[in-house]
Amino acid sequence: MKILIVEDQAMIAFLLEDVVLGMGHEVIGPATSGRQALALAQQGGFDGALVDYNLEAGSTSYEAAVVLIEAGIPFVFLSGCGETNDCPELQNVPLITKPFVLSDIEAVIEGFQS
What we know:
The chain has 114 residues and is of the alpha/beta class. Helix content is 39%, strand content 21%. The relative contact order is 0.20.
């Protein structure tokens, strides 16, 4: 599978890349800004996504998340707090809170296959 990573913190992005690659999948990204996330979401060509909501310079992945929902691409938010609670269209998106455990990320990726 191809997995999009949207994460602005380099250490976390590298960790997510390691998990995806270690599972035998391909990484798209990582996108570090809302603009990059939106462009990659619109481009498509991936099977699932791991998405941080708050990104660099005060941007968010909101627009990219809406594109993913409309395209029917499964994804999960990775976040330190519940920023998406104010967005009704995003309330049904699964959330893994930071800090997370790797087994949770692996389980999400395995769920993209079903």
